[in-house]
Design goal:
Helix content of chain A: 25-40%
Order of helices and strands of chain A: EEEHEEHEHHHEHEHEEHHHEE
Number of domains of chain A: 1
Number of helices of chain A: 10
Strand order of the largest sheet of chain B: 7-8-9-3-10-11-13-12
Distance between the termini of chain B: 34 Å
CATH topology of chain A: Rossmann fold
Structural class of chain A: alpha/beta
Number of strands of chain A: 12
Number of strands of chain B: 13
Shape of chain B: globular
CATH class of chain A: Alpha Beta
Oligomer: heterodimer
Strand order of the largest sheet of chain A: 6-7-8-3-9-10-12-11
Structural class of chain B: alpha/beta
Chain lengths: 323, 337
């Protein structure tokens, strides 16, 4: 049984307007997303801004309430749980945010921040808390004297380490990391990715890694789902994405990603046009307006996510099942 | 300019930066953000200026444009920014205004903040032409629409009277590029022009900049932290670390055969593609960038360097010319394998 099972998850944000302040439209941020994450696996969620990848993460963890669909975590359906019922689940699922600074309270020291989480969830006894904080800081490779410092006294990479320590404080099974290294320089990014890889192994963590950076996802994740305009267009293993990718959007993403080799400087691949508005998504395939293999059917009928083989699913009319 | 025979074979120099030192007066004393940076930008080339946050790459570009707050900024006495025969360092504010947007234009990272939200796209493009050219009103309008068309904005006549918020991020960056190109500058300084954009849009903008460079011969100084972007677009690269230029090389040589240990470490820390690489630990650079207020007296990278020797902490290395088009600031440059 997968640790996390998301079925047909939908999140719409209403737009109100007019003198009666009625709902005039919906921003369809996440539209019927289904995915599973096995225990111990790292799933990458990749897509461009506005594709709904962050909303998906926040809805799974119930920082946002789903409009429709279900989330089963370790067999428990969480979308309908009350606040009190949710608390034990929260201890098992944690979230790491993109911006390491704005997700830390500027008026609290590292110790105060960690203590708050540990005491709230009663992870260890009051007497053991101080030692446990020291242990956590060591786990994320921060110096012992870091505990008395405020967020502004840390560098960006150290702040992200502190965020990771806070997520780990409750001993979770599952962590959603939303662009955890996007705000960092490459050399610091490498440090944080190494740390996450070590921790993943040490604590047997299951991760959902939300990112726009293909290189990072390919390196760090076991499988990935590619999102476009609130839907999953492809799910594939990270083993050999360049050979495997079938969906025209995934292929376009791969080709527009600049390669770190001046010898492979080709004509840059250009995907024309822009993402349609999620307020009024097209009836057919969401990618139809930019796709070079578009057929008549793509404009009227939305392609379902079809299983190609054990590790791959594609939502595209042009990709025949079993290919 | 030096009289070395080597430079005569090189392409014509459009902009020459010599010993650029920029310091700021702060509460904690004088802070030097850029120290003795020297490089040439050749006509029609794309030069990448790379480095991590705080290395001084943006301060370098703003010093060239003299966009830093005058009352707290000090430039070194021997600092030169040569545009043709003229040293821009000696220019007055009024003289600089004739240069900016006319002979040297700049594109910033965030297109929304570079555009004025309360004026139409057409009005903002028109402003540069009104200031720098003698064209009449209808000629200017024709030119603005031509510019919008050149940066491949669909239905430019319609966009002319729209406001920045009505455009997407990619379209806004196109408008900013159109504005920068309005007076056909000799030099375009692009400070992280695609960092705020998605990859598919980034590819569109990079291609546009490449095409325009080929068509107009404008030299581009591309400031970025993204080595992938550099590999795909630049001819030569200047690497900065902690306020100093540490290496200069043609793009192929830099990627295949970096001389400075920092450049090598930086290249190694990027996740690589392929099944074999997956889940492997990435190479990192130990420690953090030294603080501007407390720079090591000798080599600034010494603390973090894996080829450090005694000399590195005793004596500051100078930027040494390795051959005609390569230079490195290191006592023990990495040799090719």
């Amino acid at each position: 049984m997968p640790l996390l099972e998301v079925n047909n998850l939908t999140k719409h944000f209403p737009i109100r307007g007019g003198i009666l302040n009625r709902v005039v439209a919906n921003v369809q941020a996440v539209n019927g997303v289904s995915l599973q994450i096995e225990k111990g696996e790292t799933l990458g969620v990749i897509g461009e801004s506005g594709c709904g990848k962050s909303t998906l993460g926040k809805t799974i963890i119930r920082l946002l309430d789903a409009t429709a669909g279900t989330v089963r975590f370790d067999g428990v359906e969480t979308t309908q749980l009350s606040h009190a019922e949710l608390m034990p689940m929260r201890r098992r699922m944690q979230f790491i945010f993109q911006d390491p600074y704005s997700s830390l309270n500027p008026r609290m020291t590292a110790e105060q921040m960690l203590r708050e989480v540990i005491r709230f969830h009663d992870v260890v006894s009051a007497e053991a808390t101080a030692d446990y904080i020291g242990e956590l800081l060591e786990t994320v490779q921060l110096r012992k004297d870091a505990r008395h410092r405020y967020p502004h006294e840390f560098s960006g990479g150290q702040r992200q380490r502190l965020n990771i320590a806070r997520a780990l404080a409750v001993k979770p099974d599952f962590i959603i990391a939303d662009e955890p290294v996007s705000a960092l320089d490459v050399s610091v990014q490498a440090q944080i990715l190494n740390l996450l890889m070590d921790l993943r192994e040490k604590f047997d963590l299951t991760l959902m890694f939300v990112s726009h950076d293909l290189k990072v996802v390919e390196h760090f994740c076991d499988r990935m789902v590619v999102m476009y305009l609130g839907t999953v267009v492809e799910r594939l293993s990270c083993d050999d994405i360049y050979a495997q990718a079938k969906h025209p959007y995934t292929r376009a993403l791969l080709k527009s990603n600049p390669i770190n080799d001046p010898d492979e400087r080709g004509e840059l691949f250009i995907l024309e046009g822009e993402v349609p508005s999620p307020r009024n998504p097209p009836a057919g395939c969401p990618f139809a307006s930019r796709c070079d293999q578009v057929e008549e059917r793509c404009l009227s009928e939305r392609p379902p996510l079809v299983q190609l083989n054990d590790s791959q699913q594609v939502a595209c009319w042009a990709v025949p099942a079993g290919s | 300019m030096s009289t070395s025979p080597a430079t005569s074979t090189a392409a014509e120099v459009a902009l020459s930066v010599r010993n650029l030192t920029t310091s700021f007066r702060t509460d904690r004393g004088i802070v030097t953000a850029v120290e003795k940076a020297s490089f040439d930008l050749h006509r029609g080339e794309a030069l990448g200026l790379v480095g991590e946050s705080g290395c001084g790459k943006s301060v370098t570009s703003k010093s060239i444009m003299r966009l830093l707050p005058e009352h707290i900024t000090r430039y070194g006495k021997d600092s030169e920014v040569m545009l043709g025969p003229d040293n821009l360092m000696g220019y007055s504010g009024r003289q600089m205004r004739d240069i900016r947007g006319n002979r040297i234009a700049m594109i910033f990272q965030e297109p929304m903040t570079a555009l004025n939200p309360v004026f139409t796209v057409g009005w903002q493009l028109d402003e540069a032409l009104k200031y720098h050219t003698k064209l009449g009103r209808s000629e200017r309008k024709r030119r603005v629409i031509e510019l919008l068309d050149m940066v491949e904005i669909p239905s430019p006549e319609k966009r002319y009277s729209e406001f920045p918020h009505q455009l997407s991020g990619g379209m806004r960056q196109r408008v900013v590029i159109a504005m920068a190109l309005a007076c056909e500058p000799e030099i375009l300084i692009a400070d992280e022009p695609t960092t705020a954009l998605d990859v598919t849009i980034q590819a569109q903008i990079l291609k546009l900049m490449n095409d325009l460079r080929e068509r107009t011969g404008t030299a581009i100084l591309l400031i970025t932290h993204d080595l992938g972007v550099v590999a795909q677009t630049c001819d030569r690269v200047v690497v900065m670390y902690a306020g100093q230029v540490v290496e200069q090389a043609p793009v192929r040589e830099l990627f295949h055969n970096p001389s400075h240990p920092y450049t090598r470490a930086l290249l190694r820390s990027i996740p690589r593609s392929g099944k074999k690489e997956r889940g492997k630990r990435l190479a990192t650079i130990d420690g953090i960038v030294p603080s501007l207020t407390n720079m090591p007296p000798a080599c600034r990278f010494a603390d973090r360097c894996d080829c450090r020797e005694d000399r590195c902490t005793a004596e500051p290395p100078h930027l040494v010319q390795l051959n005609e088009d390569r230079s490195v600031r290191c006592h023990f440059p990495v040799h090719s394998d």
